[in-house]
Specification:
about 525 residues, alpha/beta, five-stranded mixed β-sheet, 20 helices, 17 strands, about 15% strand, elongated
Length: about 525
């Protein structure tokens, strides 16, 4: 059976550290604590007094003064690992955590998972070829030496960097290493930790290199594990569930996130807010329990992106600068059907194609596999279609040898509608207003990845009002835009009312419009 030694780096809040250590060791696991050498002596004495008699707790014999982005964080980890290896010969795995982490599964579940997967869990991507670094320095982290802390010695940090750039003082990566990068929250097997320490202390050139690398806690273990362990024995992910805001800041979890956290494919979560006292207590009790009936829905990241994105989506109302001279043509008409229920719009499009000569295409900007003719490659992906939207429309009109074209857009595609309305062509809009019952909203949440088949009813109940409000917001945004030549059909309207709107939209006879309005099962789910 797996036995975990947790590697805890901390610098404050000794009472919370004591609680965390007691919760983790209550299940029979171990913990090695490194308290920042800059912390108060009183805090260290508090920890020693509360935990010193616990046989499953050990303190680093040496302590480093830690600074964000510095080698000191790796050095502190190495000190804690050395202490754990010596003190806990029965430990099979070593799991990196912080004081902001808490378990989201039971120890029994975690042990069974680790026993069933004889691998190291560590996120590691190629430093140069991957897109793991979203903002800030990339190559500069490695090719230049960093002696100062960017946060506490900003002037010296950037002066040193600029001097090295001007003098061309660059260094090379150790030849036999492929530098990797990833999250610092890993879980490694005992033999892997022993191999990393043996290699690191035998290769002083590697230690010298990483000592002056910027943010080495994201590259040191990630690189050495990949260098020493076969790929088949590495699972490229972290077992710690964490989220970042669009400003690059870690997301905090609070008391009402308990069910959400339990549903994620992870053993721990970070960061638990210091205010979430109840959540910390419940998660600590959970770890010591025998519970193994966890239902993994793993919708957390999609759910967070959706909920935080409402109202803060960049909506672009002006044409892209490279399309300023691109137009469909003054004599042409683009007819846009905007509808959230795609199956309703698709039924109407099929009827339009059958009863008129106007070519009609489904959700070409929203659905990757929408059938399209071969247009030389511009049609092959949603990204290309959106990037060259007007050119795509022009090519489709030429392909069909027509001056009119009907397309479908999701109601969230307000930027596309606004962009097309700035074109010289005549643009018409038909909004299809549908009713949304709870079953449809639940199905929609599952289709777009906001919920899974096993998502709890409580989570869905909290989510549905937001989804419904989001759909109302999209509808109101379209109407607030005051687009010209805009009409609307409604699920609750009569066939005659909808026929009048369709006749105006398509410029067809009343008979054809009435036939379209009477399309069988048009609004059926």
């Amino acid at each position: 059976m797996a036995k975990v030694a947790f590697i805890l780096l901390c610098h404050k809040n000794p009472d919370a550290i004591v609680q965390q250590a007691e919760q983790l060791t209550a299940a029979g696991d171990y913990i090695a604590i490194h308290l920042d050498a800059s912390s108060r002596d009183e805090d260290y004495r508090t920890l020693q007094s509360a935990l010193g008699s616990n046989p499953n707790v050990v303190f680093s014999k040496r302590r480093a003064k830690c600074g964000w982005g510095e080698w000191s964080l790796v050095q502190a980890t190495l000190h804690a690992l050395e202490a754990a290896l010596d003190a806990f010969p029965r430990a099979t795995h070593f799991y990196m955590i912080s004081g902001d982490c808490a378990p989201v599964k039971s120890a029994k579940f975690a042990h069974q998972m680790l026993d069933a997967n004889d691998v190291d869990f560590i996120e590691s991507h190629d430093f140069f070829d991957s897109n793991w670094i979203k903002t800030g320095f990339r190559e500069e982290r490695l090719v230049y030496r960093h002696f100062f802390n960017e946060r506490t010695q900003k002037r010296r940090f950037y002066t040193s960097l600029e001097v090295q750039k001007r003098l061309g003082i660059e260094r090379k990566v150790p030849k036999d290493l492929q530098i990797m990068i990833g999250s610092q929250w890993w879980c490694l097997r005992r033999q892997t930790v022993e191999a990393v320490l043996e290699f690191a202390y035998a290769r002083r050139d590697v230690l010298r290199f990483f000592r002056t690398t910027w943010i080495p806690d994201e590259t040191f273990f990630q690189t050495l594990v990949r260098h020493l362990v076969p790929s088949r024995e590495i699972e490229n992910r972290t077992l710690t569930f964490l989220l970042f805001s669009d400003y690059g800041m870690p997301v905090n979890f609070y008391n009402d996130h308990f069910d959400l956290l339990l549903g994620q494919d992870a053993i721990f979560a970070r960061k638990i807010s210091t205010e979430a006292v109840e959540l910390r207590a419940r998660l600590g009790q959970l770890y010591a329990s025998d519970r193994t009936d966890f239902v993994i829905s793993d919708e957390g990241r999609n759910l967070f992106s959706f909920l935080t994105g409402r109202g803060r989506i960049g909506r672009r109302f002006a044409p892209r600068f490279w399309e300023s001279e691109t137009t469909l043509g003054r004599s042409r008409e683009l007819l846009i059907i905007a509808c959230k229920k795609w199956h309703v719009a698709k039924r109407l499009v099929a009827a339009i194609s059958h009863h008129t000569n106007t070519p009609a295409i489904e959700y070409l900007f929203n659905e990757e596999d929408t059938p399209l003719p071969d247009l030389g490659g511009i049609e092959t992906s949603l990204a290309k279609r959106g990037r060259h939207r007007r050119a795509l429309m022009r090519m489709l009109l030429d392909h069909y040898d027509s001056d009119r074209l009907v397309i479908c857009l999701d109601t969230s595609s307000l930027d596309l509608m606004a962009d097309f309305y700035t074109d010289r062509a005549t643009v018409r809009l038909l909004e299809i207003e549908c009713s949304f019952d709870e079953d449809y909203l639940v199905g929609h949440a599952k289709r777009v990845g906001l919920a899974g088949a096993q998502t709890s009813r409580e989570t869905i109940s909290r989510l549905l009002p937001t989804i419904r409000h989001d759909m109302v917001y999209e509808r109101d945004a379209i109407r607030d835009a005051n687009f010209a030549n805009a009409t609307r059909i409604r699920e609750t309207a009569s066939d005659d009312e909808n026929a009048a709107a369709l006749g105006q939209f398509l410029s067809v006879s009343p008979q054809v419009a009435k036939t379209l309005a009477e399309t069988p099962y048009l609004f059926a789910d």
